[in-house]
């Protein structure tokens, strides 16, 4: 696990308390860890929900690994008053707190913004929620599929491509919100550098989705439906090929460069022209003896194309293998496990995943000693009380 780049980690001086679970909050913590921050994931005794998804190896599932690599893990029962007090003490030493509970939950646990900021004026707290902390929907639970439906995206996909209303096999809303949360958090840290004062940052999943949606302008301008998609998949030698051109532009490029003609009637309407021209393009694509020859012809006229890959072949693509996108981390039992590395590449700094993800409570004593300077007697008492927990299956990976 050698991070990319040469030079310091940009966020090596930051302490981050990650109270979040699932994806939207933990992904922010993962990115901060990749940039050098000391991130303590506070996991509840019943475990993060992502421990239920993916292939499990040495007590760690694939999804939990991807979202929590590089963090230290402390298992605290926040419903226990002593556990909540321990988390508050950690927040007093933190630069950043990340949370994605429904609005009001942390207040009831004594860990809301007002209380934490009163003890740490420099604290930046990032709160992620589904629909914001105000309004009639504020208390609703929200996961990515809920936001996909509420944002109009599920209905749009069905309308454009046909077929049933269905969700996607990726938690887009979570990841989009994470990235917006990361930007807002870094902006708040920049302002703190100037003022010395922290602040509370809120990012709702629905807000983040809508501001990122590059098709929402159709609805804003009153259109009944969005305009044409840019990408279309065609049958081609060697398998399906994605072409990033709408049909009229694709037809014009090929007809001008290669003299394509269709058998459309002289008086054909727009729909009929589309049918005939699509058929002519399909015949032209099928006429190549190899995919390599076809790609040369497409690139000659500036057509952007993509192979339609499955999960396995994605990891074998030159852009992935040649750039070291996949890296290995310790699996906690002397072996290695693959994980997607940080996408950040700096000319004068380092970034990248530095360790795997651990069993719950793997770093209880180590992290609490580092942050709070607690001795063995105090740690023993917290463990006996049940406020501090650990996975009985083992300690997991060290940092």
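Sequence proposed for the structure above (399 residues):
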């Amino acid at each position: 696990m050698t991070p990319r780049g040469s030079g310091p980690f940009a966020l090596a001086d930051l302490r981050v308390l990650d109270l979040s679970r699932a994806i939207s909050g933990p992904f922010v913590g993962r990115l901060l860890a990749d940039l050098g921050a000391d991130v303590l994931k506070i996991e509840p005794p019943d475990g993060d929900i992502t421990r239920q998804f993916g292939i499990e190896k040495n007590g760690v599932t694939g999804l939990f690994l991807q979202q929590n690599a590089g963090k230290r893990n402390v298992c605290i029962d926040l419903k226990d008053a002593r556990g909540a007090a321990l988390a508050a003490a950690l927040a007093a030493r933190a630069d950043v707190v990340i949370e994605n509970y429904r609005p009001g939950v942390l207040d009831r646990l004594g860990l809301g913004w007002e209380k934490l900021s009163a003890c740490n004026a420099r604290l930046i707290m990032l709160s992620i929620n589904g629909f914001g902390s105000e309004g009639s929907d504020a208390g609703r639970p929200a996961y990515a599929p809920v936001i996909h439906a509420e944002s109009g995206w599920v209905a749009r996909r069905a309308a454009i491509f046909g077929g049933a209303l269905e969700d996607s096999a990726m938690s887009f809303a979570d990841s989009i919100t994470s990235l917006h949360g990361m930007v807002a958090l870094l902006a708040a840290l920049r302002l703190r550098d100037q003022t010395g004062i922290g602040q509370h940052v809120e990012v709702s999943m629905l807000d983040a989705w809508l501001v990122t949606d590059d098709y929402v302008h159709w609805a804003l301008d009153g259109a009944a439906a969005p305009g044409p998609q840019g990408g279309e998949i065609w049958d081609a030698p060697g398998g399906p090929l994605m072409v990033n051109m709408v049909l009229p532009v694709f037809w014009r490029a090929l007809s001008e460069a290669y003299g394509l003609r269709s058998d459309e009637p002289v008086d054909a309407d727009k729909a009929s022209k589309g049918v005939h021209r699509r058929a002519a393009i399909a015949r032209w694509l099928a006429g190549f003896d190899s995919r390599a020859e076809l790609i040369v012809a497409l690139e000659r006229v500036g057509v952007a194309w993509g192979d339609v890959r499955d999960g396995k072949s994605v990891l074998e693509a030159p852009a992935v293998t040649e750039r070291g996108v996949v890296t290995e981390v310790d699996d906690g039992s002397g072996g290695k496990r693959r994980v997607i590395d940080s996408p950040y590449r700096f000319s004068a700094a380092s970034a990248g995943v530095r360790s795997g993800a651990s069993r719950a409570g793997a770093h209880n004593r180590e992290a609490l000693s580092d942050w709070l300077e607690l001795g063995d007697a105090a740690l023993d008492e917290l463990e006996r009380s049940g406020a501090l927990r650990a996975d009985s299956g083992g300690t997991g990976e060290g940092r």
